[in-house]
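Hi P.,

Sorry for the delay on this. The queue was packed all week, but I finally got your sequence through. Input first:
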Amino acid sequence: MILYFSGTGNSKYVAEQIAKITNDELVSINEKIQKNDTDKITVQDRLVFVVPTYAWRIPRVVRDWITKTDFWYDENTWFVMTCGSEIGNAEKYNKMLCNAKGFNYMGSAGVVMPENYIAMFDSPTEEEIEEIFTKADKEIEKIANLIKENKPFATPRNNLQDKFMSGPVNMLFYPMFVKAKGFSANDKCTSCGKCVKVCPLNNIELKNGKPTWNKKCTHCMACISYCPTNAIEYGKKTVGKQRYKCER
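Then the structure:
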């Protein structure tokens, strides 16, 4: 079984490509979280989590959902993490999570994908995106074959910088940067409700035809990236920036 969480489509794409090789069932964590579904999940053969990298670890909303969900499973588990550059020391925390759940940890692997966190960075150009996917597809194939052959991933780099980024920086990232109050919709908004539908945390609602954000935001960038009229901004940080979503 492949369980994936995806804001703008990168992790969904990777999960789908892995499934083509392993023939594993695909399950959306987004839909599970939206429905507050933590019912028992029965897994056969293997368990693969495909998730984005938030401040050099898996997203807290995913970690919390895994923690709360009852899995009928104690076999091999892999983590595949999409990222803009690297996953830091995420392995340490993924292994801790597996130990807590009784899973047999088989490793963590990063797949560099186009940057989507436009609240802080710029999205790549179309040419850069094509180059990234060319490299990513080769890496995904290697990862998928290891999973299919029931082999562990190689141990990721783990230097002092990795430990610092996944440790103190991750702890500061959420209280300092992950805030919903920066989002707003301008006059280009057509009240289509797309942002409401794509939010994995049910954090957005329409009031008087305009979206409003509550306090459960995880900064997945789904709302701002999928808005068909580019009406959503995150303060002044996203003004004029190209939006990115994976539509392959």
